[in-house]
Every structure is written in structure tokens, then in C-alpha cells.
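User: For a benchmark we're assembling, each entry needs the component sequences followed by a predicted structure for the full assembly. Here are entry 17's components. Please fill in the structure.
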Amino acid sequence: MADVVEGAGRGRAGAPISTASAISARGISKSFGDLRALRDVDLDVTHGTVLGLLGPNGAGKTTLVRILTTLLLPDAGTASVAGLDVVADQNRLRERIGLAGQYAAVDENLTGIENLTMVGRLYGSRRATAKARGRELLEQFDLLDAASRPVKTYSGGMRRRLDLAAALVARPPVLFMDEPTTGLDPRSRLDLWDVIETLVSEGTTVLLTTQYLDEADRLADRIAVIDHGSVIAEGTPDELKDRVGGERLEVHLEDAAQAAAAARALGPMSDEQPVLADGLVRIGVKGRSGAIIEAVRLLDAEGVGIDDIALRRPTLDDVFLALTGHAAEDGDQP
Amino acid sequence: MRRLLSDTLVVAERNLIRLPRAPELLLAFTLQPIMFVLLFRYVFGGAIRVPGGSYAEYLIPGIIVQNIAFGGFVTALGLNEDMQKGIIDRFRSLPMARAAVLAGRTLADIVTNGLSMTILVVTGLIIGFSFQTAVLHVVVGIVLALTFGYAFSWVFAFLGLLVKSPEAANSVGFLAVFPLTFISSAFVPGQSLPTPLRQFSDVNPFTIIVNELRWLWTGQPSPDQLWQAFAWVAFILVLFSPLAVQRYRRAAGR
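Assistant: Structure for entry 17:
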């Protein structure tokens, strides 16, 4: 669904807003009282691609999504979605986006079909049209059997699928998903990932926020890392991993109490501070060859017992840690 | 404008079809008022002296007004829940008329208030209440009760958007409505109250609405005027609907 992009404008600092972008933000800032939720955020998402917005709780991901979906006005900056300005063109913009939230925003006391029919009618469809589209979506999301059951009888995964179906009622070219799989069991997560991949293969542009690095790694064409309201890195997953560079050495200790001793022992192998977590020591190493033997020798000399030791490619966890100084899943604002 | 109307109807319909599926709400609309009628008629009623007709005739208009005022609770709780659960976000992300969320909600309240009023009137007729006036007066009384309930829905809409949780909406609403309805002429004549309470009761809009409804339905003389009752309805509506709308904009735009 390559869209005609209307009204491509110029951003705050004169940076052109790209007409190839389905989503484009320039200099977006937003404060809540003293809290600066977003600071000068620039963002571009190319048509038909997935941007993963990655960051801990409280980093500003949801605030950015709320601004891009017209739920919130920015204090400064400009942004456009599907070529429409988030402030000046709100109503037309809302016809072209779908929003699937962190909480499954469906009415528990309505049935699946009633929920979708209601949303369709609020998009301006007639009842019969809305109902037909609702059934189509329920079938697509494997919910047809549950169509006439109140949503309160649905499982968490079913609710999330229904919420996503509601976001897709008007076949929006741009879809926003705020932590789509938070709180889902692994099976439902995989199912939802499949659904998202299908949508993208059909041309939908997706912006999804997540605090799960594996999710961003699997789904996103590009990733923007956001922390304390600023985008601190942007690129493809591979680019970000390359930025961290080097192999990672992971040592599982026999005795978690020896973590400090292990970190001391491994010190000479790396320029970085090792990361300690629950009997696991992680450290970036310069070369691959001989690294394990050297590590074993150093640890043995310190009398540190090893359960398991391995070298691996950096993950987005490492990227996040290297960029922000803290792990992705323990944000400082719960 | 046509869009506002159709969106309002969609939202109202949503609020009505979910009602029978929330048994606790349905009970609040049906059994609870009946219990109140029986309680006042048969437990307290014998000890309450009223001017003119029987206590059943005195009671029914009062209990209907009280019940309708409490009816707005569904709006307070429902809006609060919708905020918490992200349903308001969903509505706001749709190209629908903005005002339809509140308008649909309060419109649904008219239907539920009509339902509980019907239940109360039927219960009343069984326990000895009867209309003593011309049809026109009865109809004006119904209109008064329903418009008063509609105005009060906006008070509750404001309340529901103001507080942080449904529980808070419940207790704040209860604390406000309980004294307003009981320190009024709804259940006992003002003359029986101690002076400070009687002074409060005399100016309490509930007293005025109840007195007028009683006059319209049973012909009991009222110290107040019908226009005063409708003026209160208009005043509450004009005061609270902009407050609720403003609160909706602010609360939803967090």
C-alpha cells in the first residue's frame, strides 16, 4: 500500500521531512511538569517497514506514540504520519492510522464482534459493513469461534489479537503498537509476531515500542533506542550490534558470591567494565581466538569455579547496556 | 453534526448492551431501588408522619429522584474504567466526533434511568402509590425527573474523570449524594428536621425537585415553583457539562 504522501513539509530546523517516510518527526519535545518526557526527538520510518522503538519503562516511548497518534500535543516540534500533520490534520490522520495499545483496549462486556462493529461504525461505516469487516478480521485472527462471547471470557492472547484487529478495522496504512506483547505467554507472543510480519509483508508501516530486545531484533527493520526522552541511537539491528563491536564472553559461576573475584580476574582481557548479574559475568573481549582458554586460566588462578563459559555475538541487550549504562528491562521509572 | 449524532448513538448503544452483562450493575438498577421502597414503606414508614396523603404517595416521588441521582454512578464508574483500560484512548484515536464519548454515555443514562423509574413506579403502584393528577402533569413530571437525571449524569461524568480510580469515584460520589438526598424532603417532611438541617433541606435542589414531582404526580401543594425545579436542572447542566468536557480533554490528553 504505497501511499500518496501529501503535504510533505519542513521540520523545525529546516530539515526536510522526507516524502518516503510514512512517519516523520522533527524536534519533538514534551514535558509533564518538571519531567522532560521527550527531548528534541527526530524520527523517520520508511513506508512498508517496521521501526522498533526500544527503551526501558519511562523512557518516553509511550509519550512519543501518543503524540504521533494525536492523543497528545507536542510542546515543540513537528511530526507527520501518512503525510498528515499530527496537530493540524488530526481528523484526517486518524482515518489513516491504527493504534494497538499496551492494555488491550477492548470492552470486556461486549463480544468480539460487537467490539469490532462498534469501532467500524465509529470510523463511519454502516452497521452491516462494519459487521462484515469485523467477521473478516475475526477469521483472520482466528477468533471466529469466540465471536459471540463477551471479551471477559477471552485469554490474554485472544484479547491482544482482538485489540490488534480493532486497530486494523479501517485497513490503516500506518500501524502503531505500544508494547504489543507485554504480559503475553511465549506462544501468544510468537503468534502475534507472525501476524505483524504478515501485515508488513502486505505493505503496512509499523511503529512498535518494546522493551524486549528479541522482539525488536526479530521484527524491526530499524531500531531507535530511546532513553530519558532522547533517541540515543538509530540503525538496523546489525548496525547497532556492530557499534558495540567484539565478541561477548559469558561466564556462569558456580558460586554467585564469587562474581567480584571473577570480574577482577577477567579485568585484563577487556577495556570495559564487566557486567555482573546473578552468577553471570559478561564482558566484551578483543579477539576470539584463545579467549576462552585465557579466561579459564585467569579464573582458575583466582580460584573461581565455572559452571559454563561461552563466546557469542553481541545481542541488543549488550547494545542497550553499552549505550545507556543500564540494562533494558530495569528502567529507573517503573 | 450528523456525525456527532450517529457516533453518540453508537457509544450509547455500547453502554446499553454491556449493561445486562454486568450483573452487579443490573442489580443496582433493579433490585436495589425495590429494596429501598420496601424498606421505607414498611420499616421506617410507619414512624414517619407526612402531610396530606399516604406515605406511599409521599415516598415514591422522593425515592425516584434519589434513585435517578444515583443512576449517574454508572457514568462515573464507566468513564473512570474506560480511562484506566485505554478505551478512551481507542476512541480518541478514531476519526469520530469528540463529544460523542460523553454525549453517548449520558444518553445511555437516560435509558437506564427510565428503566429504574419504571420499576419504581410499578413497585409503588403495588404498595399503594397512585397518580392523582392529569396526564399532562404526570408527563411533565416524567420529563422533569429524566432531565434532572440527565443533568446529574454530567456531574458524575465530571466526577468520574476527576478521580483516580473507580473506588474513589464510588466513595466521593456516595459522600456527596447521600447527604444531599437524605437531608431533603425526599423521605421526611422538612418540618420534622432540626433547624440547621431544615434550612439546608429548604434550599437543597433535591427538595425542590422532589416537591415539584410530588405536586405534578399527587397534587400535594409545594412551597416551590415548577420553574425553579427546571432552573436547577438547567443550572446543573450548564455548570457541569463544560466542566466534564474540559476535564475529559485534560484527562484524556495526559
